[in-house]
Amino acid sequence: MQSRLWVALAPELQDQVDALVTMDRKLRAVQVIREGVDGTSRPGLHECLALVAERYAVLGKRFHRSPTAPLDLDALTAKVQALPHRPAAIEAVWDGDSEGWFVLLLAITLDPRAEHHLAIVQHGTDLRLFNGTVPPWPEAEEATTVGRTLAERLGVPFHFASPQTPDNEAPRWWDTP
Hints:
The chain is α+β, with helices and mostly antiparallel strands. Helix content is 41%, strand content 18%. The longest helix has 17 residues, at 138-154.
């Protein structure tokens, strides 16, 4: 059965959405859906995401986020060196969204107290939990290896409170003694 929103889209927009889904361009497909409905009946983000997920299923594709590219130590070093303040630490922290867990690599400054985004590391969705393919979490291993090397290069500590298990409430570097 086709959703009300799918039926409301013009055939050329349906073709465009399916082409984007085939290329695994979820966000662009959502944008096409939102812009394709005129007036006050414009669908919300969740409704558009649900339709994109539906189209993935209809087209026989898995709705997942592609793994991030491997971290580049030299590019990360340059990114940290471009910050307005010297970092006090490099930190890896878990975060997640509706598609699964990922690790953020951050540069931490104390004056001012701030975190500066360096990279996101994700190697799959939480479907891996049901398939039994994690742990170990490859994104945690990559963030630990590269983060530790980056911290050594900069002469600052590296902190990752929960490399074995996703935990977005684990203690942060500035909260540890």
